[in-house]
Every structure is written in C-alpha cells, then in structure tokens.
Amino acid sequence: MIIFRYLLAEVFKSQLAVFVILMTIIISQRFVKILADASEGELPGQLVMSIVALKLPQLAVIILPLSAFVGILVAYGRVYADSEMTVLHATGVSEWYVTRLTLLLSLVLAVVAGAVTLYLSPWATEQEYRLLEKADANAGLISLVPGRFQHTSNENAVIFVQSISRDNGELQKVFVAQNNARDTLGDHSIVYAMSGNVKEDISGAQMMQLEQGRRYAGDVKSPAFEITEFGRYQIQIREQEVEQRRRKLGSLPTSELYGMDSNEAIAEWHWRIAIPLSIPLLALIAVPLSRVNPRQGKFGRLLPALLLYLGYYSLLIIARSALEDGKIPPALGMWWLHLSALVVGVVLIMRHRSSAQRFQAWLAGRT
C-alpha cells in the first residue's frame, strides 16, 4: 500500500505540474489576444476575465491528454534515473503492477476528461457565444473606447469620445460623423457636443443623447452647410434587433450532437470521445517508454515519446478531417486509431520479458 501511494503520488504530482505549466502558457497567450481585442474596441473590457474563464474548459480538452502522458514519463523517468525502480523490482514490484497502477490513475483522469469534453466544454462554448451576443445587444457605452474612432453597430455613424466618467458613465467632448441619406437637413452631418450619455428606449434600441453642442449638416458636394446649435440631441447607435452569432458544433450539447447525421456532427462526436479514450491508451504507451538508464537522466526518452504523441494526435486530427469530408465511414470513425494505439502499447510492454511473463501468468490466473 505504501508503494501504491508513493507511485500514485509521484505520477499525479508530475501530471498536475505539467498541466498547470501548459495551461499557464496557453491561457497567457489567449489572454494577450483577448486584451488586444478589448483595446481595439472589438470586445468590452468588462468581459475580458469572463471570456478567459470560459476558455479554460476548451483549453483543458487539449492539455489533459498531453499532461497525463508527459507526467507519467517525467515521474517514472525520475524513478528509473534514481534507481528506485530497480529497488522496487528487487522487492517484488513488477512492471505489470506499475502498469496497472498507472492505468487506474489514467482511468480516473479519463473520467474527468470525459466530463470536461462531453459536457463542460460545450457548455462553456455556448456561454461564450451568449456573452458575446449580450455584449452586442448592449453595444453602446460598454463598447466605447475613449480616444478612438469607432463605428456604431448599425454602421450609420462614426463616434469619437475624448473621455468617459467612471462615476456615472458620462461622455465628455463627443464627436459624431453621420451619413444621413434620409435626413431632411442633408446627406451628411457632423455633431460636436460637450457631454452626453447612452440610453436604451422601450423598444430595445440604444440612443446616444448629446447635450450642449452644434450640428453641421449638408451635401458634401455643396459648400453650403446648415449649423444648428442644440441643448439636447439624440442619435441612434444600435437597432432593436441584434443578429445572433453563428454557432459552431463545438457549442452543441453531446446528446444533441449524437442525434445528428451530418459528417461534421459525426466527426465532432468522435473527437469528443477520442479525448478521454486517448488518456489510458497513452498511459499504456508511456509506462514502457519511461524506462531509462541512470546515465540517460529522467528526460532520456522524453523527445521520442513526444514525437510519438504528436504522431498520434496528428492522426486524430487527420481522421477528424476525413470524417468531415466523408472519406471515412462513420462506423469506422476513429476506432481504428484507438485500436492501433492499444496494440502499440501492448507490444511495448510485452517487449520486456519479465513483464510478458507476469502478464501471461495474470491471464492464466483469470482463466
């Protein structure tokens, strides 16, 4: 039991460390991109952290199999490099025992990955769509960036705001250029106001209410312009209806996806199943690949193992693309890849004579 807990703890700590490191690196890159979108006014700044949080399950789907695989290689590589595994073998701990222990942990991780892939990730993707749609519906004050020229959501005007009060959201020194083809005062107009704010009427349309300013209107081909001073002036910046964002299959619940018969839906379903299935299969491959001589160090076989992982993952992507194009029968799906990975893992384990003998004895005991 002590050996069981020790090996289990070593593998889990390594997997957790790899997962945290990879998640930190990737989420930092996504965070920079999201911040860039927010600084350009494409995304409200208030939604940055919410979008980042909803990205976590989507990124975890990619990182979980890799962290499980690399964690086993690093943990057992250190145990072999420090000759601890040699001592364990001398005390009767077989490599088949180590394999079973690793498979037990990988099955637990597969259940977690399955929950993330089949349920949490689609839910997070759908929530991200809804959040962005809500931001589109509330586009107005929330999307205005001080010191930047921006189009209104209905593309009828360009707005420049020098500053926005943090206390009450009041706009200071507002410039608006409008294209008013139906305006009685002219085809084009420029409005400058000292202050303003954004309000929504009962129909859902958003209006910018400006105060204490001037409006210059006229035809750009004519030198004649009308100048109107006003105490209060309103401009519509968003129509009542907001177009719904087009969903990808990644946002659909797995239960709904299973009932669809399109090639894209079938490929998405097989992909979601492939992620949790790959974890125990990769664990089966990682255990024999983690054997290193003390002279090699704990990272002795990390590079060839990673190349093998990249090959397997690339084949999964190719199979998904082939399923989407209808080049692979839906019944075959990605099962042939999983079976191939299982065969590779068993062959690597059976190459070690003592492991083969233990495995055969275990099979004989089962029959």
Automatic annotation (TrEMBL):
Keywords: Cell inner membrane, Cell membrane, Membrane, Transmembrane, Transmembrane helix, Transport. It comes from Rheinheimera pacifica. Belongs to the LptF/LptG family. This is Lipopolysaccharide export system permease protein LptF. The lineage of its organism: Bacteria, Pseudomonadati, Pseudomonadota, Gammaproteobacteria, Chromatiales. Pfam families: LptF_LptG. Component of the lipopolysaccharide transport and assembly complex. The LptBFG transporter is composed of two ATP-binding proteins (LptB) and two transmembrane proteins (LptF and LptG). InterPro entries: LptF, LptG/LptF_permease. GO terms for cellular component: ATP-binding cassette (ABC) transporter complex. It is a multi-pass membrane protein.
